[in-house]
Here is the input.
Amino acid sequence: ETGVTQTPRHLVMGMTNKKSLKCEQHLGHNAMYWYKQSAKKPLELMFVYSLEERVENNSVPSRFSPECPNSSHLFLHLHTLQPEDSALYLCASSQDPGQASGNTIYFGEGSWLTVV
Amino acid sequence: AQSVSQHNHHVILSEAASLELGCNYSYGGTVNLFWYVQYPGQHLQLLLKYFSGDPLVKGIKGFEAEFIKSKFSFNLRKPSVQWSDTAEYFCAVGQAGTALIFGKGTTLSVSS
Here is the structure.
């Protein structure tokens, strides 16, 4: 148990579907993240939220749309994805968004997404 | 652009062998350095981290890493691996005001 819970754990969707990934953190952290983990590639930072405000967006296609309604919840809305978007999507949280104090990032178990 | 390089993609060792996984980064200035581990079927978890002080950092399960500023390196070591160390290992680097950047990961397979 990491304190960061992701649902669903597995998702298969067609290219025309709309779906959402959900993340909840029980650690009282102020920052939340979405990362994409693909085979043989580095973990890619997608979005960073600090106190519900997006502070970083690493040129992610608009077919991925994040939402952070409060500091404990983070969503990733998915629409008209491509097969190359199939990957493990990891949610994470930390006390603060930056690395000024070397604060640790805590990861969820991830949501396996397959786009067919 | 800032980057993190892990040179070993897949390492295969026998139990009791010594381990060293390389990590180099291309940042200038003050950095915070991390090693995360992902055991099969489990979430990513912190193994150890460095952000100041003694450059030799000890983590969980007998792992340690040494920060060598002049070489921009933060290599992970363990004197004697066990079968249960089979996992994927990620080096990550961050600076104040930015989120962590991860390397591609190194898969460690330990045979008993």
